[in-house]
Amino acid sequence: MAAAEAAEGKFQAQALDMGIGTVDCPVFKDMYDYSALACGASLTGADMILSGSADAAFNPSGGLHHAGPERASGFCYLNDMALACLVLAEAGKRVLYLDVDVHYGDGVAYAFYDRSDVMTISFHQSPRTLFPGTGFEDEIGAGDGRGYCVNVPLPVGTYDQAYMKAFKVIAKPLIKAFEPDVIVFELGADGLAGDPLANLYLTNNTYAEIIKILLSYNRPILMTGGGGYNIENTVRAWALAWSVLVGAEGEHDSSYGLGGVMLESTEWQGGLRDRELVVSGQQRDAVLPALEATMESLKANVFPIHGL
Ligand SMILES: [Zn+2]
């Protein structure tokens, strides 16, 4: 009853048992409809991929990766990603779930923690410094799923080159070994430098590069949004990601030259891509040793399970 009342915008104390009515997951009118529509869009994308009517789909309203069973968490009430992966897996597909949101994709990782038909790979800011406080490199799955949950926690200040190094060293060989039939990609844009909720130092060029790598596997891709709390940067990142995903980057781009004029921003040069950011020697020294240690741990504990 508490959930039904909450969907009407009325709060009852029992709702808190499901994580509803907290600061992160407040009760609001049409809360259920909003979440169900976001899930429906991701499921529609999954259906289109299964029927062969699309090989790329993007749901910017999706990516609600924190929600658990009967448990709202971190702005997420219903987990569209877990549902989409489930539908694809139940159709017999090997599903790669890749999550580059700055927060750990915990709801999806735990939904498939003991399964080997859905591999979850999450790159996120270290749980030592960011919500949800889980997602360490030694959380690698259990039972049949051992080695199929891959977490790459990243130090504060992680920048493009360091991030891509970790992606190439850890994600690429694992994806190749797993041989997915379909890729589900959670593209939260809160890892971008300047995001008010997090502390990474990425540009959207990293997301574009990752999408190009994903396209090279020649598998259908269901992409969603996720977090992203610097709105201007997030919108531009998703527009760039979509254009790269469908091979249309640079076409009909009327935004060149508009940065300083339209948005009073001297950071944006126009176009969809971010300017490269300068990284200091001090920042490299702060990031690289911790990242190397994480990569070594994953190579030692996860790679052998996949014959690597
Ligand atoms: Zn996030």
Strands across the major sheet, in which order?
A: 1-6-5-2-3-4
Given helix and strand content, the structural type is: alpha/beta
Taking all Cα atoms into account, the compactness measure Rg is: 19 Å
Low-confidence stretches: none
Describe this structure in words.
The chain is an alpha/beta fold and about 300 residues long. It contains nine helices and six strands, in the order H-H-E-H-E-H-E-E-H-E-H-E-H-H-H. The longest helix is centred in the first third of the chain and has 21 residues, at about 30-50. The protein is globular. The protein starts with a helix and ends in a 7-residue tail after the last helix. The model has no long low-confidence stretch (mean pLDDT about 90). The structure holds zinc ion (ZN). Zinc ion binds near residues 101, 188, 190, 226 and 227.
